[in-house]
Write a structure and sequence with these properties.
Residues 362-373 have a biased composition (Basic and acidic residues). Helices cover 21% and strands 26% of the residues. It has 8 helices and 39 strands. Strands 3-6-9-14-17-19-20 form a 7-stranded mixed sheet, with no helix packed on it.
């Protein structure tokens, strides 16, 4: 059952597990939400539960131990979770009254059903989702972060992040160009809301460019306003250009050298301790190959992810949808069209595998990292151009 294979639901162990869950549910009905006793019952019933959760009664489930909910989740009256497989609900998610989540399914073949066999597929609901009353979530569905499901919807397929889905068969309602952009759909970039967002980013970049070179605190404050998320240990040399800014997210101690350009139509996420050489371009946006589509000003976004401890050489280009794995190095002037595995050196146009790199036995702060942290590190240029050369920090 837990592996998603066909199984006999009348197995003695499973029958006993369901009996146990029903006993806990009945006890919870007695105590109800907002009581210490009720919370203790839920902790015994569920696989895991975060802080400040509220589950109104009545509430029903099959096993309980396959349900995992984050912090501040709210379930209204009469929710039913058939947790044959895992149901994971992210923090701050709201479930309206009568929501039903099914991980259980049955064979279409009646002869197989006669044997009492069934199977299941997990359901995942990410953070900050709102599911309207009497909605039904079918097996295998994943609902992306921040999405909203209309009341009475039947969700049969995955829902992208930051989307509104509604109606009996849960088809997408009309979305603004910005909503389409943020959910990876084709959108028209000629739009008043997007124009205003781009203008805001340009004004903030211009504001940063006018600051004194050594006024790092003021530059950091502008970056906090410009980027989706950034920490004070990050450093961005000027000039720097981006489309929107709010799609850029930086981990600890990220260093961007002079003249970097980030077309952040989709998300660009940096891990910790990332070095980006001068003139590096990152493009999350793409356009139709057909002329007719370009005449309609259509664009589409694919996110870029740069994991921890990556070093990208100067004047490299990172194309839409690329993930650069932890500890990887990209040679100067490379054009990265595909994912780069962790701890590998890639270089060239298009970037190709050069050699494997040795992962550290224990993470430590290198001399180069210490220098960058205290502000003494200079331009991180790569001394490779496609050959099996060593990579040298200046």
């Amino acid at each position: 059952m837990l592996d998603g294979q066909l199984y006999d639901s009348m197995d003695k162990e499973l029958v006993e597990d369901r009996r146990r869950a029903r006993a806990h549910v009945r006890e919870y009905d007695v105590h109800g939400a907002y009581t210490h006793e009720g919370t203790q019952v839920l902790k015994r019933l569920l696989g895991s539960m975060g802080d400040d959760c509220v589950i109104e009664t009545p509430f029903r489930c099959d096993y309980g131990y396959n349900i995992h909910i984050g912090d501040a989740v709210f379930m209204n009256f009469n929710c039913v979770l058939l947790d044959v497989c895992e149901i994971r609900i992210g923090g701050r998610t709201l479930l309206g009254p009568g929501v039903q989540i099914y991980t259980a399914s049955h064979p279409l073949d009646p002869d197989v059903r006669k044997q009492g066999l069934e199977d299941g597929r997990p359901v995942t609901i990410e953070e900050d989702v709102w599911i309207g009353g009497n909605a039904i979530i079918l097996p295998g569905v994943r609902i992306g972060r921040g999405s909203v499901i209309g009341a009475g919807s039947v969700v049969t397929k995955d829902v992208p992040p930051m989307s509104l889905y509604a109606a009996t068969m849960a088809t997408s309602t009309t979305m603004t160009p910005k909503q389409k952009m943020l959910t990876g759909q084709w959108f028209c970039g000629i739009d008043a809301e997007l124009d205003a967002d781009r203008q805001r980013a340009r004004e903030l970049c211009a504001k940063m460019a006018k600051l004194e070179v050594n006024d790092i605190p003021a530059r950091t404050e502008v970056l906090k306003e410009l980027f989706g998320s950034v920490v004070e240990s990050c450093h961005v040399e000027l000039p720097f250009t981006c489309d929107y800014g709010y799609n850029i997210h930086m981990g600890e101690r990220v260093f961007l050298n002079y003249g970097c350009v980030m077309l952040d139509v989709g998300e660009i996420r940096f891990g910790d301790l990332v070095l980006v050489g001068p003139g590096v371009h990152m493009y999350t946006v793409n356009h139709p190959l057909e002329v007719a589509g370009r005449h309609q000003n259509l664009s589409i976004a694919k996110p870029i992810v740069i994991e921890d401890d990556v070093w990208i050489g100067g004047r490299s280009v990172i194309l839409p949808g690329v993930i650069i794995g932890r500890g990887a190095v990209v040679g100067a002037g490379s054009v990265v069209t595909k994912d780069v595995p962790a701890y590998c050196l890639y270089a060239g146009n298009p970037a190709k595998f050069i050699k494997h790199l040795t992962p550290p036995e224990q993470p430590r702060e290198s001399e180069g990292e210490k220098a960058r942290n205290d502000g003494s590190l200079q331009s991180p240029d790569l001394l490779v151009s496609g050959s099996e050369s060593d990579v040298v920090l200046p």
